[in-house]
UniProtKB/TrEMBL annotation:
Name of a matching Pfam family: Abhydrolase_1
Molecular functions per Gene Ontology: hydrolase activity
SUPFAM superfamilies for the chain: alpha/beta-Hydrolases
InterPro entries, sorted: AB_hydrolase_1, AB_hydrolase_fold, AB_hydrolase_sf, Peptidase_S33
Protein name stated in the entry: Alpha/beta hydrolase
Lineage, top ranks: Bacteria, Pseudomonadati, Pseudomonadota, Betaproteobacteria, Burkholderiales
Keywords: Hydrolase
Amino acid sequence: MRIDIGQGVRLFVDVEGPGLVPDGPTMREKPTLICMHGGPGFDHSAYKPAFSQLADIAQIVYYDHRGHGRSDPRPSSEWTLDIWADDIVRLCDALGIAKPIVLGQSFGGFVAQRYIARHPGHASKVILSSTSHHMGMERKLAMFEKLGGPLARALAEAFWSDPTPASWAAYWAGCRKLYNTREPRDPEAGLRTLVREEILLHFVAGEKQGLNLLPGLARAQCPVLVLAGEDDPVCPLEDAQEIAAALPAPCSRLVSFPGVGHGAWRDDPERAFPVLREFILS
């Protein structure tokens, strides 16, 4: 469905599971987990069907960021972290969601970090999965070279320093296989993703270059779980460690996964999903 979040902006939203369930003589309200996808330029489909296993403990809301996927196209002037972060609040207002649990994967984690800074009292909990707080070029290049040799480093440097359709195509063809350490359980998942390349290139060439999300994390007012793969080339472990350190100590929890790349729930679901369940239920 497409939900109007104000001023004629419609986001594609999919909801899994009821928010109210029978519990003896009462109706019990489950927490709402909002899943924000990576990219930018991708859509929410990567979460399906893996996250369905959490539907017994939470109502799950998937959506495509403004301008992405099946959400309505929007002008490039609206492709900013501030707007995407504010859209979480707009979406919750439109759906009547109070105190959501907000999960951001990769680029979705950039959005979630900006959301913490701009709306620190809005969420009940936040999950930052395989994300970064800055460009971190040297860390990226070192990890790509470690995992894929000099060619991978060269392809990564060409794309992240000069994002064009050609450098993106070469990078994705040569480096995508280095993102994860396990063969995908669903090899056709990537084929289902709707990609808007123009958003990706716009963001990487612009706001991504000077990204600095650490200062805003000090404003966090709720528990924040930081998940990181120790073999993630694009959002290296050191970035997650710095994110966790920038959060107020009572709020911060870091869990790292050895032998895991970009998205612990992809590479080590047997360990990652119990961590997510425990955090949601805590």
